[in-house]
Amino acid sequence: MKPLLTIILLSFYLLSYAPNGNFNIDKIIKDIQLQELKTEVYGLVLDEIKRAEGLELKVYLCPAGHPTIGYGHALLPGETFTEITQEQADSLLIIDFEKRLDKLPKEMDWNKRLAIAKFIFNLGIGYYNKSKLKQRILEDKPIDDLIVKYCHYKKNGMYVKSDWLLEQRKFELMIYKIIC
Fold first, then answer.
1. Least confident of 12-21, 34-43, 131-140
2. In sequence order, what are the residues at sequence separation of 6 or more whose Cβ sits closer than 8 angstroms to the Cβ of residue 81?
3. In this structure, is residue 111 part of a structural domain?
4. Helix-strand-coil percent breakdown of the chain, rounded to 5?
5. How many domains does the chain have?
6. Containing domain of residue 124, as a range?
7. Which residue from 87, 141, 89 is spatially nearest to 112, judged by alpha carbons?
8. Cα 92 versus chain centre, distance
9. Is 69 in a helix, a strand, or coil?
């Protein structure tokens, strides 16, 4: 972590944990390390989305036929992008991903929210809401055997297994199981 950021965070923790001067330095350090881990995992998920989606700076039609740009950003009503910069693509990705995170319960563990938000980014909220996966998560039951089943897509009316989708589900499962 950058020294200035460490000092700012440490100051914040000292003030919030111990306005009267009594504080537990071990707890403060552990909390800072946990926040760093959460930030790293968040970045890891965004990097995987970037890798998996690829970057297109000009509008294209996704496999479902929707005008799309950047890292899989489906153009919204009123958006008239024809071309964007990488910085704009990065911003759109964060906005899109945060929208998925916001659809999940705040009390869900951070790593689980990240994993499921990525699942939703890839397959859509409607698909997730109808899935057995959502029910299993809400019941706090293991998802290992179930999440990897969501690796098919429809082609000419038939379901086809995708190694790429299976790779995505395995990544999400790995994030889901991280403790942070």
1. 12-21
2. 59, 69, 75
3. yes
4. 60, 10, 30
5. 1
6. 34-177
7. 141
8. 13
9. strand
- Report d(CA 72, CA 69) in Å as an integer: 6
State the Cα–Cα distance between residues 102 and 13, nearest whole angstrom: 26
Q: In this structure, what CATH number is given to the domain that contains residue 74?
A: 1.10.530.40
Residue the block writes with tokens 């995170």: 101
The H-or-E segment that residue 35 falls in is: helix 25-53
DSSP notation for 116-145: HHHHHHHH-HHHHHHSHHHHHHHTT---HH
Using one digit for the tens of pLDDT, what is the confidence trace for 52-109?
999 999 999 987 789 999 999 999 999 998 999 999 999 999 999 999 999 999 999 9
* SS3 assignment, position 170: helix
